[in-house]
Amino acid sequence: MYIPTFQDMLDAHDRIKPYIHRTPVLTSSFLNDLVGAEMFFKCENFQKAGAFKVRGASNAVFGLSDEMAQRGVATHSSGNHALSLSYAAGRRGIPCNVVMPRTAPEAKKAAVRGYGGIITECEPSTTSREAVFADVQKNTGAEFVHPYNDPRVIAGQGTCSREFIEQSGGVDMMVAPIGGGGMISGTCLTLSTLAPEVEIIAAEPEQADDAARSFKAGHIIADDAPQTIADGLKVPLKELTWHFVSNHVTDILTASEQDIIDAMKLTWARMKIVMEPSCAVPLAVILKNKDRFAGKRVGVIITGGNVDLDTLPWLRSNM
Asked: What are phi and psi of 143, to 5 degrees?
């Protein structure tokens, strides 16, 4: 297993700069007052393809040799990695095959197709996803770019924290969502060198808390098909992301489904930005554990903004 290095992250940043946005860092005095902390939100919802995953996907795609690139790339993903890889492949002019759960948000499926990706649907479980993908890869011979258990992807995600530190002037704590652990691993990769004093805290839905349970147990515990509104955080940790989580993460905090909906709605209302449920989990855990963050400078990564506007969670809860 190759563990990506800080130099890999720097190389990734040089490689992907033409294909990504340097996303803004926003603040909210309302949210600062609510928590009693100084918070800085890194807005990857404004990223190309609407999510941080374009960083890792672009690094993987543009790092391929011409010979490998000809066969295209393939992956399995509930959404943001799928559309990010489709975007990057489209920019390089190579094919992209994606296995997506049939329950994935229609907005994300439409975006994949819009970027030229070819979708094969599977059942909404890790088992089905991996079985269907094995067939797709066998038939296409494409290069597999795992959504998170891939050193190229983690090095790419690490570029987000590098920009954040330059933009914010440093923080005491960094909070990001955790599903498979790609963004958290990239955050660990970068901050452990650039700002080792920063506490890294992962945020997870209570109904998909396998990372929190893994963290407590000291080994990976994987749920096959958890049910949560945070559709981007349903996947389990893998060996590579577990390496970073077990070595560098300070704590994993969880939030209920209602906490997540409330935090998402509050961000829409107060910051006037579109974010998806998975990205509201960090603010949800901060609001639930205010004492932990009070008086600190806190970085928060808003990981994406690909929302199905016809099925907003607070509309569902009123039906």
From this structure: -75, 120
pTM: 0.94
Instruction: Kindly compute the dihedral angle of the four CA atoms of residues 24, 165, 186, 31, in this order, to the nearest 10 degrees.
Output: -60
Closest CA to 86 of 75, 102, 101, 78: 75
Phi/psi of residue 35, nearest 5 degrees: -95, -30
Taking alpha carbons only, the member of 126, 117, 59 closest to residue 83 is 117
* Measured CA distances, 224 to 49, 51, 130, 182 (Å): 27, 24, 11, 18
Name the pLDDT band for 104 (thresholds 50, 70, 90). confident
Phi, psi of 64, deg, nearest 5: -75, 145
Contact of 290 with 36, CB cutoff 8 Å: yes
pLDDT of residue 89: 98
> What is the distance in angstroms between the CA of the first residue and the CA of the last residue of the chain?
48
pLDDT digits (tens, 9 = 90+) for 47-83: 999 999 999 999 999 999 999 999 999 999 878 899 9
